[in-house]
Amino acid sequence: MKYLLFLLLFLLILGVVGVASNPSPGFAALSLVMVAGSGCSLLAGQGGYFLALILFLIYLGGMLVVFAYSVAFTGSDYVEGWGTRRISLAAAGYLLLVWGGGVILNTNLNEEFWTVGVSFGEFMSLEYSLVGVAHLYMGGGWLLVAGAWALLLVLLAVLELVRGASRGAVRVV
Amino acid sequence: MSPYMLIILIFTLGLGTLITLSSSHWLIAWMGLELNTFAILPLMAQQHSPRAMEATIKYFIIQTTAATMLLFASVSNAWLSGQWEIQQMSHPTPLALITIALALKLGLAPMHAWFPEVLQGLNFSTGLILSTWQKLAPFSLLLQIPPTSSFLLITLGFISVLMGGWGGLNQTQLRKILGYSSIAHLGWMILIMQYAPPLTLLALTVYIVLTSSMFLTFLYNQATNINSLAISWTKTPMLTALTPLVLLSLGGLPPLTGFLPKWAILQELTKQGLTPVAALTALSALLSLYFYLRLSYATALTTPPNNLPATLPWRIIFKQPTTFLAVLITMSLSLLPLSPSVMAFFTF
Q1: How many contacts, defined by CB atoms under 8 Å, are there between A and B?
Q2: ipTM of this predicted complex?
Q3: What stretch or stretches form a coiled coil here (chain A) (predicted)?
C-alpha cells in the first residue's frame, strides 16, 4: 500500500511539473490527465470515491475534452516537449523546487491518516460530496430549480454569444 | 435578439439580484452574482461590433475574477469558522478579501480601470443596466458583512472619489464620463458604509435616479460625445433646458437632490471625527463638478457654430415615450425639500 501511495504521489508531482513546464497546450493537457488520474486514485483510495468519479466524468470527460478540441484548432508545426533541452531543464528545475520544499517541510507519510468521510443523521460513513448531492436533491427544493436554471442560462448565453453568420458576434458583419 | 432570449436574460437578471439580496449563505449569494454576470453578457454583445465584444470579454473576465475571489474568501471563512453565514464572518482576512472582491465587482478605485472602457463599448440602455441594476447585489453583500478594516473602506472610498473626478476630466465621450461619475459616486457610498449604512442606501438610490436620468437623456438625444450633445438642443428644447440642472444635481449642488447624500455623508463623517477625510473628499468632488459643468456648458449654455439651415432639424415627432424620464428628472431636481421624509425612508 505504501508503494502504491508513493507511486501515485510521484505521478501526481510529475504531472504537475509537466503542466507547468510544457508550453504546448496539448502536452500540458496530457500531463493534466496524469495529474487527474493519480489524484483521483489517491482520493478514491482514501474514501472519496464519489468525488473521484465525478472529477473523471465532468472534468476529464467533459471540460478537458472540449479544451483539447479547441486546442487542436491552434495546432502548430514545431511542437516542443520534454525532448528539447530548454523545457527539460525547466522541468528538472521544478522537480528540484518540489524536492527542496519537501525537505523544508519534512512531512512523514506514515504518521498521517486522513479520510474524506462523514457520518451524521441517516448518512453513515459516507462522503461529503455524496451527502451534499443527496441533500440537494432531497431537501433542496427551489434551490435545485435555481441551480438548473443557472445551468440552462449559461448554455443559452454561450449559444447566443457564439452564434455565427449575421445574427451573432463571432463574425463581424 | 430573439424576444424569447431577451425575456430569459432579463428575467435571469432580476432573479440573480433577488437571489443575492435574499441569501444568508455565501454560496447562494455567489450563485446570484454569477447569474447576473452571465445574463448580461449576451445583452452586452448585442451590437456585434468589435468594441462591444471587447467590452463583453473585459466585463466577463473582471466579474469572474471578482466572483472567484469571493468564493475563495467565503470558503476560507467556512474553513476557519465552520459556517457559511454572511453576517457571521469573524476572521479578518476573508473579510478583507471579500471587501476587495466586491469592490472589484462594483468598479471602485483602485480596481476601476475596466469600468469606463466597458461602458464605452455598450449602447446606452445596456450601460444603464450595468451602472444601476448590477450595483444592487454587491452592495447588498457589502452592507451585510460585519465591520472590516476601517482603513480599507475609507481608502477605497476616498480614492474612488478622487480617481472618478480626476479620470473624467480628460474625456469627451459621454459614456466614459458617466463611467467615471459612477466611480466617484460609489466612492461616496463606500466612505460612509461603516458609520451609517442607511446613508449608503440613500446615496445609492439618489445616484440611481440621477444616472438613469442622464443615460435616458443621452439615449433620447442619441448623443455619444460632447459634440453631439452640443447640437442636441435643436431636437429637444425642453430636455435641453433641464439637462444642465440634472448635471449640477449629479455634481452635488444645492438646492438640487444630489446635494442631499453628500450633505448627509459629510455631516456624519464630521460627527465621527473624520473631518479631514470629509474635507478632502468634498474637495475631490470638485473635480467631478468641473466636467459636469463642462457638459452643461456644451448642452445649454453655448450655441454651436452652425449655419441656420443646419440648426433646424426635421420636424420628426419623437416616438420614444418620455414619461419615465420625466419622472426621473423631476425626482432628481426637487427632492431636497423632502429631505426628512427621504432620509426616514432609508433609516431602519
Answers
A1: 45
A2: 0.84
A3: none
